[in-house]
Design goal:
Blueprint (H helix, E strand, L loop, with lengths): L11 H21 L1 H26 L4 H31 L2 H23 L3 H49 L1 H11 L5 H40 L4 H11 L6 H16 L4 H25 L8 H15 L1 H20 L4 H7 L14 H4 L9
Helix pairs in contact: 2-3, 2-5, 2-7, 3-5, 3-8, 7-8, 7-10, 7-12, 8-9, 9-10, 11-12, 12-13
C-alpha cells in the first residue's frame, strides 16, 4: 500500500493567532530572561567582532586560549584608557560645581521675580506651592535613585560576565561548527554558510562603523564647543559622542549637559543657544551624512524599523536593548533575506533595495570557526 501524507491546512485566522501567540511568548522570554540574555548577546556580538583578530593571532602559532586572552586584554586596555580620560575630565568639571550652584541660585531668584511680575504670584506663594509638591518630587526622586542604583548594580554584574562569556564562545567555536553540521543537512550547509558570513559582516562593520562615527562626532563636538567658548569642551564632546551609541536620541541627551552648563556659567543666552544649534547641526550630519556613508548599507533596515527596534529594546532591556536591538534586527533581516519563504518579510524591514547583496559562501567554513587541523 502506498503511504499518503496528510497535510493539515489551518484557516488564516488560526495562523494569525499562532503567530501572535508566538510573538507574545518570544517577547515574554526576552523580558523575564533579560539578566541572562543581555550579557550573552553582548558576548556573542563581541565574539564576532574579535574573531578576525583572534584568528590572526592563532595563525602565528599562539595557542587559542592565549590568543583570546590577548584580544580581551587589548579591548579592556583601550576601554580603561578612555574611561580614565573621561574620569580626569569629570574631576576638572567638578571644580566648577560650586560656581554653578551659586549661579543656579541667582537664576532661580531671577525666575521667581519673573513669575511674580508676570503672574502676580508672590515668592511666598511660590514657596508654598513648592512645599505642597515637595513630597511628590521627593518620592519620584527616590524611585529614580533606587532604579538607578539597581540598574547600575545589574550593569556591573553583567559587565563582569561579558568577557567570560566571550572567552568561552571563542574558545569552543568548533563546538558550534559541529552543532551546525549536525543540525542541517549537507545540502543546506552552503546556505547556512552564506547566512553566517553575512551576519559576521553585519556585526563587524556595524561595530567598526559605530566606533568611527563616535570618533567623528566627538571631534565635531569638541571643535564646535571650543569655537563657541565653552569650558570642558573635550569632556562634553566625548560624553555626547558616546551617547550617540543610543540611536536617534543619544546625541540630544548628550547636548543637555553643555546647554545647562552654558546657561549657568555665562551671562548671555547666546552661549546655550549656540550650543543647542551646533548639536542640532551635528545630529543632522550624523543621521543623514556620517552614519549612512560610514556604516553604509550593512545595517540596511529602514528608519521606521530601526525606531521600533529602539523602542522595543528600550522597553525590554533598557539602555542595553536600545544598543543591541538595532544590530539584532539587522541580523534577523539577513536570515529573512536568505530563506525563500521569508524574503517578503526581509524586504519589509529593508530600505527598499531590489538587488540582493553578494557574498562568498564558499569561504564560510574556512573563515568562520577556523581551527587547527589534527596532525598526522
Amino acid at each position: 500500500m502506498e503511504n499518503k501524507q496528510t497535510h493539515i491546512i489551518l484557516p488564516v485566522q488560526a495562523n494569525i493567532v499562532i503567530v501572535l501567540l508566538g510573538l507574545i511568548l518570544f517577547f515574554y522570554v526576552l523580558d523575564i530572561g533579560a539578566n541572562i540574555l543581555i550579557p550573552l548577546v553582548f558576548s556573542f556580538v563581541f565574539s564576532l567582532f574579535l574573531y578576525p583578530l583572534c584568528r590572526k593571532l592563532e595563525s602565528y602559532k599562539i595557542p587559542r586560549p592565549l590568543a583570546i586572552l590577548i584580544c580581551l586584554l587589548i579591548v579592556m586596555g583601550i576601554l580603561s584608557l578612555v574611561f580614565w580620560m573621561i574620569y580626569e575630565n569629570i574631576l576638572s568639571f567638578s571644580a566648577d560645581l560650586p560656581q554653578m550652584q551659586d549661579r543656579g541660585q541667582e537664576l532661580v531668584s531671577s525666575l521667581q521675580q519673573l513669575i511674580e511680575d508676570t503672574f502676580k504670584l508672590s515668592s511666598e506663594n511660590q514657596i508654598s506651592w513648592l512645599r505642597q509638591n515637595l513630597k511628590s518630587f521627593a518620592n519620584a526622586g527616590g524611585q529614580m535613585l533606587n532604579g538607578l542604583i539597581n540598574t547600575t548594580t545589574t550593569f556591573l554584574a553583567q559587565l563582569f560576565l561579558i568577557p567570560v562569556y566571550t572567552f568561552f564562545i571563542l574558545l569552543y567555536r568548533h563546538v558550534f561548527r559541529g552543532f551546525l553540521d549536525r543540525a542541517f543537512d549537507v545540502a543546506h550547509h552552503e546556505k547556512v554558510g552564506q547566512i553566517l558570513v553575512q551576519i559576521e559582516s553585519v556585526i563587524q562593520k556595524y561595530i567598526v562603523g559605530l566606533i568611527t562615527v563616535v570618533s567623528i562626532i566627538a571631534v565635531l563636538n569638541i571643535i564646535g564647543l571650543t569655537m563657541i567658548g565653552i569650558k570642558h569642551a573635550v569632556f562634553f564632546g566625548i560624553l555626547a559622542a558616546f551617547l550617540t551609541i543610543v540611536p536617534y536620541i543619544g546625541i540630544f541627551i548628550g547636548s543637555l549637559l553643555p546647554i545647562v552648563y552654558a546657561l549657568a556659567m555665562t551671562d548671555s543666552f547666546f552661549y546655550p543657544l549656540a550650543v543647542l544649534i551646533w548639536f542640532q547641526v551635528v545630529q543632522v550630519l550624523e543621521g543623514n551624512v556620517i552614519t549612512p556613508n560610514i556604516v553604509g548599507s550593512q545595517v540596511s533596515i529602514n528608519p521606521l524599523v530601526a525606531m521600533l527596534a529602539l523602542l522595543i529594546g528600550g522597553s525590554l532591556w533598557g539602555i542595553a536593548g536600545m544598543i543591541l536591538f538595532v544590530p539584532l534586527t539587522a541580523m534577523i533581516k539577513v536570515i529573512l533575506d536568505n530563506v525563500p519563504s521569508l524574503t517578503p518579510y526581509g524586504f519589509l524591514l529593508s530600505e527598499g533595495e531590489t538587488k540582493p547583496k553578494k557574498s562568498n559562501p564558499n569561504s564560510f567554513w574556512k573563515k568562520i570557526f577556523a581551527w587547527k587541523k589534527k596532525k598526522k
